[in-house]
Amino acid sequence: PADIRDAAQARVRSPPAPITDVARLCVCDLLVAQCDVNCCCDPDCSAEDFSLFTSCSVPVVTGDSQLCSQKAAVYSLDVEANPPERIFKLIDQVNPSIFCIQATNYKQALYLKSPEIPTPENFDQLLDKFGGAAFSAEPDSWNWDTDAQIPPDANETSRYEYGAPVQTEDAFLRLPSPVVSSWCSDANPAGFLVNQATKCIRSVSVEKCDSIQALSMLFYINSSILAVPKSSQMVNITVQSIVVQSLNGMRTLLSTSDVLRLPMVLDGLCINAVLGVNYHITHTDTGEIIEAAAAFVLGAISKEALSIEQSFEISFTQENTQPVPLSGNPGYVVGLPVRAGFQPQGYPFPAAFLSNKHSQLTILHSTSTQDCLAAQGARAPVLFGYNMISGCKLRITAAMKCQPLAQTLLDVLKGQSFPEYVASFGNSQAQDVLDWVPITQLLISEQMISPTLQSSCQIPVSLGIEVKWTKYGSLVNPQARIVNVTATISSTTLKQLPSARERIIPVTSSVVFTDISSPAEPSYKAWPTIDIKLPFDFFYPFV
């Protein structure tokens, strides 16, 4: 019918309903539950407050300035009134620009949408859509239905973020830990990418051990993990290994972990009780969990025991990467390896040190034969806080050529791939560029013979590494931080030996740690003294 068609056309031509209520919008309202001076839109201001205003700091409040037509809240003061009062008007404001937005009908622009991550499966599709000089973000259907609701999951993340609880189908992944006392609490959620290790005390009763959930393996693996928060994709927790511990502490690794061992009472003992759980979570670089495994330690509980100590641990590893052990959190711990790396070309941050699997700074490892040529490839990690020295002996004959010999000795001293950077903290990550200290390399040549001799060869004979560190942070719990690393290679010049002659040269490698921390306070000897006598009543009425 014509009346229905006209009503529909009028409804289409009418401007969309405003999304922002400008009457409630106030950009100068800065104080909580207090009236801001000259802020005429502040709802905390009373008529008495408005009578004291001299002007309105924000006379006009609007929403999106790019809209063609919108509501505007106009504020002013009637100074002729006694007392002066505020005047509020809500008007229709028209944008004079010919380039304006008629309607905000693109709902996807009203909230932040996580971008689609390129993968080998969707790369061609994304390239066809966004690879050209221009592309369209037009949705499937344009409509003027301003009453359409934003999807309820529009603001939900499609991936795990650091510290977010690892969700399961019923709640979250439990990592029992002590809360107030040393007793276990099962309400502690495991945080994504947060490596934790806890120990707590669990009250037990041998007669009821088969009914205590916390002693059963099923309690820790029966709930599947959500691959991403609030999704329907599940990741089952598999049993990686089972270790059985006897009453005297002896542990035995079972050959198979396919069969669940549930707690039961046998000969007055509670066997197969969970004493420890070690979770290992594998995730992608986009924050999606793809694999979960648990390693168990089961043990026996005697009937005299009223409680047991349980240990729990969780670690996270990104797929297609090898886990790198840390040397402190955050500061270095004495005796743990110094972490090192180098920066490949084209990478904005230091990558893992490829010469060994642990990303450590290493030096020459002494062997029983003390032969430098046989010691090539043998390395020892540099341990934080430990001054170290090692060496070998080089037997030089007349048949040896200078350049290959010098390169061989350099490889013996520095290794195949000497790092360019050292981690300033024990838990420095590769992407944190400022947490990596460059290694300064120096070359020192020592003249061992007269320079007038004709045939000579210069070879490296020692590598000295000096690590300067400082105490960082609170004086109560200072953290060790490396601030400078210098590697000095000393070389010597040798005369070419006549035939049938040989010479033995010692080759050394050393590491020295130097604490350059400033003293927390000056020595009392540096304090000035005043030789005066105070009046007898100077501290009156105090003694």
From TrEMBL:
Domain Tectonic-1-3 N-terminal: 16-122
Protein's UniProt keywords contain Glycoprotein: yes
Keyword Membrane part of the UniProt annotation: no
Superkingdom: Eukaryota
Signal peptide: none
Xref: InterPro entries: TCTN1-3 (IPR040354), TCTN1-3_dom (IPR011677), TCTN1-3_N (IPR057724)
Residue stretches making up the Tectonic-1-3 domain: 158-318, 328-515
GO BP annotations, alphabetical order: cilium assembly; protein localization to ciliary transition zone
UniProt entry keywords in alphabetical sequence: Cilium biogenesis/degradation, Glycoprotein, Signal
Entry GO CC: MKS complex
The family this protein is said to belong to: Belongs to the tectonic family.
Subunit structure: Part of the tectonic-like complex (also named B9 complex).
The protein's name in its UniProt record: TECT1 protein
Organism this protein belongs to: Leiothrix lutea (Red-billed leiothrix)
